[in-house]
Structures are given as C-alpha cells and as structure tokens.
Amino acid sequence: MGKPLITSDEREALEKKYPYLKGFPEFLQTLDAESDRGMVLTSCAMLDDALERAIERKLLAHKAVKQLTDGFNAPLGTFSSRILAAFALGIVSEREYLEMEIHRRVRNRFAHDVRASFEDQQVIDWCRNLVFSIPVPNAEPAARYATSIVPVIIAMLNRADGGASDRLIFIPPKNEKW
Is there a contact between 39 and 150 (Cβ–Cβ < 8 Å)? Predict the structure, then answer.
C-alpha cells in the first residue's frame, strides 16, 4: 500500500464530522491497489454491506429481523434483493437504484466470467450508463465505474450509520417471553 490518502489529523477531522466514513480512506486506498476484478468485487462487497445495514436500520429492532438479511438463503440475503428492497423501502432514489443495478450487472460479469474485463463491449455499454461517474465524455469504463460507485457507497454508509434513525424498537409485553 502506498502513501496514505490523508494525514492522521485530516482523518480525525473527517471522522469527527462524518463518523459513518470511519475507515473509508483506507478502503479507497485498498480499492486503488486492486486489479479491475478486485476493484469491482471489493466495491460491491462494501456496497452490499452498507445496503444490509441501511435496510436493517429501517426494520424493527428485534433479533428475528436478522433472519431476513443474514445469509444467502435469507429473503434479503443477496446483493440483488437488497438493492430492490432498498428501493422499495424508500432508502434509495430511483436513480440510485438504477445505478446500483448497473453495478450489480458488472459485478456479476466479473464474478462469474474469468475473462471479464472493462474492454468487453457489454461492460463498456453498462459503464456508459452510469450517471454518477466523472463527467468526462470519453472516460475509460473502469474510471467511470470507480467514480460512480464511490458516491453510491458513501450515500449508503450515511444511510446505514449516519444521522437519526426512524427505526422502531420492539418492546415485548411484560408477561410474555420472546
């Protein structure tokens, strides 16, 4: 890993102002050192984790709720189902939903095809449709992908860990065991 992106004083100030970004500079540095496949899979794993937490934040605070999101066979245990649930629950806008769907398609291509690359025409076409990416007309697909997913991850981290929660708290009746 190369030189840190920010100094420890800058990191401290960032985390004080935006606590949900704790560890994010290190994530970016790791992402920068990855291969294209590693960048796609790592960034989508980070987004998937943030989506899970953002969804759980909207659901009832009860141990049984974790069964909805924990594990592949859970109803909300896949990247695809979490993206759709986040949209359905109003956690993400339609534009964010569409952006994440493109990231999911690219992720699936890289995860399931060992020959996948940002030179594949389908991947190039998907990356052209990313609207949160750098506004450079002829940007390379990998750059468009990376600069699009970072603000989406930041938004999901904020919704997962930042600000006030409108989550309901489960309080069992006094005479019943739960």
Answer: no
SS3 169: strand
pLDDT for 8-61, tens place per residue?
888 888 888 888 888 888 899 898 899 999 999 999 999 999 999 999 888 888
- What's the whole-model pTM score? 0.86
How far from 117 is each of 2, 38, 123, 127, 131, CA to CA, in Å?
25, 11, 7, 12, 20
Query: Rounded to an integer, what distance in angstroms lies between the CA atom of residue 16 and that of residue 39?
Result: 27
What are residue 85's phi and psi, to 5 degrees?
A: -65, -40
Amino acid identity for residue 165 in this structure: S
